[in-house]
Structure formats: structure tokens, C-alpha cells
Specification:
Elements: E1 5-10, H1 19-28, E2 32-37, H2 47-54, H3 70-76, E3 80-86, H4 88-95, H5 102-109, E4 114-118, H6 122-126, H7 128-139, E5 143-144, E6 148-151, E7 157-161, H8 165-178, E8 189-195, E9 199-202, E10 205-207, H9 214-225, E11 229-235, E12 245-250, H10 253-264, E13 269-272, E14 279-281, E15 302-304, H11 308-314, E16 322-329, H12 333-344, E17 348-353, E18 364-371, E19 376-383, H13 384-395
Parallel strand pairs: 1-2, 1-3, 3-4, 4-5, 8-11, 8-13, 11-12, 13-16, 16-17
Antiparallel strand pairs: 6-7, 9-10, 14-15, 17-18, 18-19
């Protein structure tokens, strides 16, 4: 079979060196990659490096090999164009349709999915001009992933760091697998919770559960690949942040509730994949609870945690907001799931059987998605990203025609 053709655009930022790792992952996984850097990018990584790693000649101008019309052909023949890093200058040119070099010409002629992985200083990312350009590109169907938070050049730290190349690769793989030029979640903001809450008993002990957060991460990554702006509320997973996702770290059910309510206020969809503890200790011991010879431990009194799924289902930010819950059951799975769907009031409920080595901590899952309108969608045993795709396939037609409210200062 012919290898998928990927164009890797590289703009002139210090993060250009990280694109070498992305190129390696793409080529080693069987993709035919053509690197198209800007002239500025070659100040950071030379043409010889890109050519050696990709196996293709490298040029920045439209005048090389004119007889092959590269400024048209490269974009026309691509299955995916990914720009990493995408600087503020490159995003501005792409948003305004400028075409003054080979990369910007390629972006204008591409009719395949296009992914931008921005990297710049925080002030540049937050500037209204950049936010307008990002909104324009997303509105046109491009996937512009959110930059990571971390160390930038010099002593600066903040949002604007290029996401991990391995995470960018995973997102590109998902975009290619869908094979759809237009991302169906473009312009939407979705909230996903993942992991398991921990309810402290004393400074060293807690009540918790077996949830790894892998299903929630799969949902977040898949939504980002489908063009959504994603807020991932993560509880105790220990995993690296997914590329292109805003991550909020929490520990307890109360903290998770606070984060979900804040993010859901301007979200089009909320997917509660986290395993939220139903109860927490009524009393927190300030010091470690000691074992005493000859004495049995005192009983641990529990109090209920807030029911976040029922709360956001009953008090939606707007009438077209879609709410998805998860139900982890050990017996009478579907019957318990149907009762929970009615009790919680959500639109969709993903019901799966859990236990040791079953769903929790594994790479695979099996579930039935129950809908409030009576629909049932079985998802056979397979990768958790396959279940994530089905969930978003069911969410998209329920979103309605209008997006929810945009965050302050960001246009829709």
C-alpha cells in the first residue's frame, strides 16, 4: 500500500529542533514525510538534517524545481499537513491567506486535514491578534492545538511551549485515521474529567479507587484531534499531559466539582469519565493515625461527596449543552446503568463492567452507551480510543446548531 503522505511544516522558532523527533516518529511508523521549513527555521535546524531524516530534498522557496510546481503539488498530494512549531508569524500568515514562501503556499493548496502546533512566548500566545488568528483557523476547519505550559526560552515559564513530540504524533495519527478533512468538533469547547479522586484520611492515607485515567485521556486526545478546544480535569493519573489540551489537576471530589463547574460554564459538552469517590472521611486526622497495641482501630465515619454528574445535568450552562456520564458496574450492568441514567439526568451514559484487570488500568475497554432517548450503542472490546470515537460520534449530532458561550476575550 502507498504510504500516507505527510507534510511537516517547520516555522522559525527555537522549538524547531523538537520537530526532528516528530519527523522520526512519523517516518518510522510508515509515513512518507516531506519537510517544508521556513527560511527562519533553517537558522535553528539546517536543510541537511531535514533531508537526511526525511529522505526528501528540502527547500523553502517556490523557485526550486519549478517544473514540478512544488508550491501547488506538495499541498495537493498531502494526506496531512502538520506545522510544528507554528509561530505567531506563521499563524498570522495562514489566517490571512498570505503565500510568500513554499510553506504558506502549501497551506493554501492543501485540501487535507491541517494541524498547527503553536509554540511562542506566553505574551504572544495571549495577544488578541494571535487569538483572533487562531479562532479564524479553527473556524475554517484547521486543528490548532493548545500549547503546553512549561519552560520557554531564557528564564521564562508559561503557556506557549511546544507539546511533547510524541503527543503531537499521537494526535496526527488520530487525525489521519479519521480521514476526514473537516474536524466535526471545530469551534467547540469540551470538558473531560479523568482519573480517580482520592479522599484523604490522614497525611499519608486516603480512600481511592483503581481508575487509571486512560479512558478519559483517550476521550481528550480524540476530541482534540477532531478539532475541539479541550479542558481535561485530571485526578491522580500520573500520566503526561496530552498534546493540545488545557489540563487542570485536582485531587479530591470536592476539588473536581469546583473545576468541573467552572469549566462547564462555557462548554458545549461535558464528559465525566473520572471515577469520583461517592464518600469521603467525615474527619481528617491532622497527624498520622497510629496503630496501638491491643486496640482495634476506631471506625471511619463517611459522608457523601457531591453528585457532580447529577448537578451539571440539572443545571446546564445552556439548553444545548450535552452531558455524558460513565457508570462502572460489577453486576447487573445494564439494569444498573439504565437506573443510573434516569437518576443522573444526563444525555448519554457509558456503562461498563469493571474489576481487577477489567477496564481499570488496561488499554482496552468494552461498553454500552445508553441514551436518554432510549438508544443503546454497544462498543465491542477494543482500544479505549475506539470507545472514545464512538462517544464523540454520539455527542456531535446532539450538540445542536449553536456553540455554547465563548470564554471572555476569545471569539467564536
Amino acid at each position: 500500500m502507498e504510504k500516507p503522505k505527510v507534510v511537516l511544516g517547520v516555522a522559525g522558532g527555537i522549538a524547531a529542533y523538537k520537530a526532528c523527533e516528530l519527523l522520526r516518529r512519523l517516518t518510522e511508523s510508515g509515513h512518507d514525510v516531506r519537510v517544508v521549513p521556513t527560511a527562519s527555521a533553517l537558522h535553528f535546524v539546517g536543510a541537511a538534517t531535514w533531508s537526511a531524516l526525511s529522505g526528501h530534498p528540502v527547500s523553502t522557496e517556490v523557485w526550486a524545481d519549478v517544473h514540478e510546481v512544488p508550491h501547488v503539488r506538495i499541498g495537493q498530494s498531502a494526506d496531512l499537513v502538520v506545522v510544528a512549531p507554528a509561530t505567531a508569524d506563521l499563524l498570522a500568515k495562514a489566517a490571512h491567506g498570505l503565500a510568500d514562501d513554499l510553506l504558506t503556499n502549501t497551506l493554501l493548496t492543501a485540501r487535507c486535514p491541517v494541524v498547527f502546533a503553536p509554540a511562542m512566548h506566553t505574551e504572544m500566545w495571549e495577544h488578541p491578534a494571535t487569538r483572533e488568528n487562531v479562532a479564524t483557523l479553527r473556524r475554517r476547519g484547521a486543528v490548532v492545538i493548545e500549547p503546553a505550559v512549561g519552560r520557554l526560552t531564557g528564564v521564562d515559564t508559561g503557556k506557549g511551549r511546544l507539546p511533547d513530540p510524541g503527543e503531537i504524533f499521537e494526535l496526527c495519527r488520530r487525525v489521519l485515521a479519521r480521514g476526514v478533512p473537516e474536524p466535526d468538533l471545530a469551534g467547540r469547547h469540551v470538558v473531560v474529567s479523568a482519573g480517580g479522586t482520592r479522599e484523604p484520611l490522614d497525611p499519608v492515607r486516603y480512600l481511592g479507587n483503581r481508575s487509571s485515567g486512560k479512558q478519559g485521556f483517550a476521550l481528550a486526545r480524540t476530541a482534540a484531534a477532531r478539532g475541539a478546544r479541550v479542558t481535561l480535569i485530571e485526578a491522580n493519573t500520573g500520566m503526561a499531559d496530552p498534546a493540545g489540551v488545557d489540563v487542570v489537576h485536582v485531587g479530591t471530589a470536592v476539588q473536581l466539582r469546583e473545576a468541573v463547574l467552572k469549566a462547564a460554564a462555557e462548554a458545549d459538552a461535558v464528559v465525566m469519565a473520572a471515577a469520583v469517590a461517592d464518600f469521603r472521611p467525615a474527619v481528617y486526622a491532622e497527624g498520622k493515625i497510629k496503630k496501638k497495641d491491643g486496640e482495634e482501630p476506631a471506625p471511619v465515619a463517611l459522608v457523601r461527596n457531591p453528585d457532580i454528574l447529577a448537578e451539571i445535568s440539572a443545571e446546564r450552562a445552556h439548553e444545548e449543552q450535552v452531558i455524558v456520564g460513565f457508570a462502572a458496574e460489577t453486576d447487573d450492568v445494564l439494569a444498573n446503568g439504565r437506573r443510573k441514567l434516569l437518576r443522573k439526568g444526563c444525555d448519554l451514559l457509558v456503562v461498563n463492567e469493571v474489576g481487577e484487570r477489567k477496564a481499570f488500568g488496561t488499554e482496552e475497554n468494552e461498553a454500552v452507551v445508553l441514551a436518554a432517548d432510549g438508544g443503546e450503542t454497544p462498543v465491542p472490546y477494543g482500544p479505549k480510543e475506539a470507545l472514545a470515537e464512538v462517544v464523540w460520534d454520539l455527542v456531535v449530532p446532539r450538540l445542536g446548531s449553536r456553540p455554547g458561550p465563548a470564554p471572555e476575550g476569545e471569539p467564536r
